[in-house]
Design a protein that fits this description.
Elements (H helix, E strand, L loop, with lengths): L8 E11 L5 E5 L3 E4 L8 H4 L10 E7 H5 L7 E5 L13 E5 L5 E9 L3 E5 L8 E13 L2 H6 L9 E3 L6
Antiparallel strand pairs: 1-2, 1-3, 1-9, 2-10, 4-9, 5-8, 6-7, 7-8
Length: about 170
């Protein structure tokens, strides 16, 4: 039995996404993220390829090109409206508002700024257009069960990802 990360192993990680320019932590997870290496696409291949051969206790930092993950930033997805046109329950930085386009397809927008006169929402992924580093700590490596391999991760898991927006946009 190998104690290194390889395909078919169940792996648990803690990770953070850090803005390279400011050092701000943009994303954290509230409890370990469990996945089956080589089976699950919870983390991008850009990240998981750097985990091959790592051991419990290893901490790695992986610079990520967010254009590959999320595409180019699209300024047409940024909208500003007069504050009186926006219900009060949405007047909070980081609030997610789901809207539908003319085809009825949902799209999430995040409140990025508001003041006494206007409120701005952004439909781009919060990491879009940033230079970021994924900092990962390997917590557990073990043989995956058949059920975990089938699911691609821990049975019954549903990790909460806590995204923190740059409030100074």
């Amino acid at each position: 039995m190998s104690d290194t990360i390889e395909n078919g192993k169940f792996v648990e990680l803690n990770y953070k996404v850090i803005d390279e320019k400011t050092g701000d932590v943009l994303v954290t997870i509230d409890y370990p993220l469990g996945y089956v290496h080589g089976v699950n696409d919870t983390l991008s291949e850009e990240v998981t390829k750097h985990l091959d051969g790592k051991k419990v206790g290893d901490i790695i930092e992986v610079p990520i090109d967010t254009k590959l993950l999320y595409g180019e930033r699209d300024e047409s997805l940024v909208f500003t409206d007069r504050i009186e046109n926006v219900p009060e329950k949405y007047r909070e930085i980081g609030m997610t508002i789901t809207m539908e386009n003319e085809k009825g397809e949902p799209k999430s927008f995040i409140v990025t700024r508001f003041d006494d006169e206007t409120l701005t929402v952004d439909g781009n992924n919060p990491l879009c257009g940033r230079d970021v580093v994924f900092k990962l700590e390997v917590l557990t490596i073990r043989e995956a069960t058949d059920e975990e391999i089938e699911l691609g991760g821990a049975v019954g898991a549903n990790p909460e990802i806590n995204e923190i927006l740059d409030r100074a946009k």
